[in-house]
Amino acid sequence: MTMNETRSQPAPGGGVRTVRVDPERAGQRLDNFLLSQLKGAPKSLVYKIVRSGQVRVNGGRAKPETRLQGGDQVRIPPVRLGEAGDRGTPAKGLLAAMAASIVHEDARLLAISKPSGVASHGGSGISFGVIETLRALRPGEPLELVHRLDRDTSGLMVIAKKRSALRELQALMREEGGIAKRYLALLAGRMPDGVMSVDSPLHIGLRQGGERHVQVHADGKPSLSHFRVLERRGGHSYCEVRIETGRTHQIRVHAQHIGHPVAGDDKYGAVEVNQRLREQAGLTRLFLHAASLEFALDGGAAPYVLSAPLAPELVEVLDRLG
């Protein structure tokens, strides 16, 4: 909490409190703001209290993705965080892996090549994700996630070391063409040559048990992906994917939609193809890798081109496919 951020006094024993949003946090998503206020709270809990209406912004209901403005009044209900204090510290192996994953660092930004299987943040039964582990590695540093990757996706993630950089990057993410995002993926089957653009809206639904499931739907948010075949491997298509929007599971659902799901995708993929690739090439994970990000800070004066090499286990799969 900054010096300008003020709270109402909570009721005895811990009750509802109201936080005034500091102007420096203008543009921050409500869910991220709550995670900063409720240290140790899993994201599943934050989504629950927002969707149930227990969190209010200026007296009204809001969504997790609501962008806050300086001076907004956020009502935060009492929550139980007892479990958070018992989580201890990340395992030594995870700390070592995260330290080794750093591909760029300067005064404003930290960039890592996230291993597959590591969540962006804790929650839903996961004690330590990228941000919790980095904070354990760098105690006292004000590290904030700029964006997220699916747990099973590997590759480039950017973490802000200064709030000014976080605000500027979040603004660029909302601009069309503000950040150029490039992924590498193995798609099932033979994609046509050239660039295939998929302009199909995506809608997030919930399955029984609360699992998120994304599908192409007319009521969804506009979503645009561009797929280009780089090589043919074992009857499948190794592709470069550029996305102009950053929707949940966007590449995976768009790939499924065009009949060429991402290899190794156990949520939107082809079961038989995944099984064959496991047996023939040793593919035991989602073949999707965030390869690079290009953007410029300081109003365009400070260009960045950040990249993360294809994960070694995915290189091995390509080699085995020949």
TrEMBL record:
Ranges where the RNA-binding S4 domain occurs: 28-86
Keyword set includes tRNA processing: no
Keyword Transport: no
Top-tier EC class: isomerase
Documented EC number(s): 5.4.99.-
Region of interest: Disordered: 1-20
Molecular-function annotations in GO: 23S rRNA pseudouridine(955/2504/2580) synthase activity; RNA binding
Catalytic reactions of this protein: a uridine in RNA = a pseudouridine in RNA; uridine(955/2504/2580) in 23S rRNA = pseudouridine(955/2504/2580) in 23S rRNA
PROSITE patterns reported in the protein's UniProt record: PSI_RLU, S4
Source organism superkingdom: Bacteria
Single GO BP term: enzyme-directed rRNA pseudouridine synthesis
Catalytic residues (positions): 150
Annotated InterPro entries: PsdUridine_synth_cat_dom_sf, PsdUridine_synth_RluA-like_CS, PsdUridine_synth_RluC/D, PsdUridine_synth_RsuA/RluA, RluA_PseudoU_synthase, S4_RNA-bd, S4_RNA-bd_sf
Keywords recorded for this protein, A-Z: Isomerase, RNA-binding, rRNA processing
Family: Belongs to the pseudouridine synthase RluA family.
Function: Responsible for synthesis of pseudouridine from uracil at positions 955, 2504 and 2580 in 23S ribosomal RNA.
Protein name: Pseudouridine synthase
Organism placement in taxonomy: Bacteria, Pseudomonadati, Pseudomonadota, Gammaproteobacteria, Lysobacterales
